[in-house]
């Protein structure tokens, strides 16, 4: 289907993309609702390969035409000035897409996995309310063999625009669920056979390299928010407290970097 040209920034056909800086914080819009917004050709290609239903594609001439769009996906083009006026900022990636949001998975369904093949590695996040950190963790998770995300109720929305952008669209291929009973619900991981490893810089924690992932077919890495880290209650609920050894004078890594190190070490 050929692209339609947008010349009026108020055109309702591109309403999904209007004022993206406000995002799901628009008045009257609840957190974690509204369409998923994906930026940049590589991320849009990953969206097209995912199970999300694409609502529309919008970009500058040439970028939209370069995409292999399925039949029936509305496609719109505009010059860079109209595009910027619609979305509320200058887009260097040239193309965006919107998709219907999918709800989080049921926790038991996530732990069981597709065809009852339980995920071997999980990332469990507590209080991680920075969307960009969450997106970076999701990108590392997909790259380094983590099969899903389990979030506490305070975590950021993994489908928020900035999270999807930083993940380069990889978060769209990563199953996620919310564990409402926190941290008591972590007991469900133990019952499902997971070794739960709480990451902390505390000096009395064991060296992460000493946690033998090969002897534990299922491992879940617990990570806390930037700064405060995991709460004491979450650490107490884990089977193992582990630290990444570092030079003297450096007390910790950023949570996204720490996550990548942990995922690679426990792969």
Architecture blueprint of SSEs:
Layout: E1 4-5, E2 36-39, H1 41-49, E3 54-59, E4 75-77, H2 80-87, E5 95-99, H3 107-112, E6 121-126, H4 131-143, E7 148-151, H5 161-166, E8 176-178, H6 187-191, E9 195-199, E10 206-207, E11 219-224, H7 232-237, E12 240-243, H8 255-265
Parallel strand pairs: 1-4, 3-4, 6-7, 6-11, 7-8, 9-11, 9-12, 10-12
Antiparallel strand pairs: 2-5, 3-5
Q: Determine the N-to-C terminus distance.
A: 44 Å
CATH architecture title of the largest domain: 3-Layer(aba) Sandwich
Helix and strand run: EEHEEHEHEHEHEHEEEHEH
Secondary structure category = alpha/beta
Sketch the major β-sheet: 7 strands, parallel
Oligomer: single chain
Please give the count of helices: 8
- The CATH first-level class of the largest domain comes to Alpha Beta
The CATH H-level homologous superfamily of the largest domain = SPOUT methyltransferase, trefoil knot domain
Whole-angstrom Rg:
20 Å
Binned strand content: 15-25%
Taking all residues together, what is the mean pLDDT? 91
Give the proportion of residues in helices: 10-25%
- What characteristic shape results from the CA principal axes? elongated
Low-confidence stretches: 24-29
For the biggest β-sheet, the strand order reads: 8-7-6-11-9-12-10
Q: What is the domain tally?
A: 2
Q: Enter the CATH topology name of the largest domain.
A: Alpha/beta knot
- Secondary structure tally: strands: 12
């Amino acid at each position: 289907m050929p692209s339609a040209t947008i010349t009026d920034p108020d055109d309702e056909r591109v309403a999904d993309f209007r004022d993206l800086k406000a995002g799901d914080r628009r008045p009257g819009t609840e957190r974690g609702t509204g369409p998923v917004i994906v930026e940049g050709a590589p991320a849009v290609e990953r969206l097209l390969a995912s199970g999300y239903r694409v609502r529309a594609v919008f970009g500058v001439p040439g970028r939209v035409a370069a995409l292999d769009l399925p039949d029936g996906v509305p496609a719109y083009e505009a010059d860079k000035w109209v595009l910027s006026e619609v979305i509320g900022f200058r887009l260097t990636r040239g193309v965006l897409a919107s998709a219907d949001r999918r709800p989080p998975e049921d926790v038991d369904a996530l732990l069981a996995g597709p065809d009852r093949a339980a995920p071997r590695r999980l990332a469990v996040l507590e209080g991680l309310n920075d969307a960009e950190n969450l997106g970076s963790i999701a990108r590392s998770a997909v790259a380094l063999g983590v099969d899903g995300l389990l979030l506490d109720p305070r975590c950021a929305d993994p489908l928020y625009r900035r999270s999807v952008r930083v993940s380069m669209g990889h978060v769209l291929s990563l199953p996620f669920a919310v564990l409402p009973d926190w941290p008591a619900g972590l007991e469900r991981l133990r019952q499902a056979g997971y070794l739960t490893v709480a990451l902390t810089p505390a000096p009395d924690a064991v060296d992460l390299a000493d946690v033998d992932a090969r002897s534990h077919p299922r491992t879940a890495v617990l990570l806390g928010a930037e700064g405060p880290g995991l709460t004491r209650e979450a650490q107490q609920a884990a089977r193992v407290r582990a630290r990444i050894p570092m030079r003297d004078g450096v007390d910790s890594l950023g949570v996204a970097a720490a996550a990548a190190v942990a995922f690679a070490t426990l792969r």
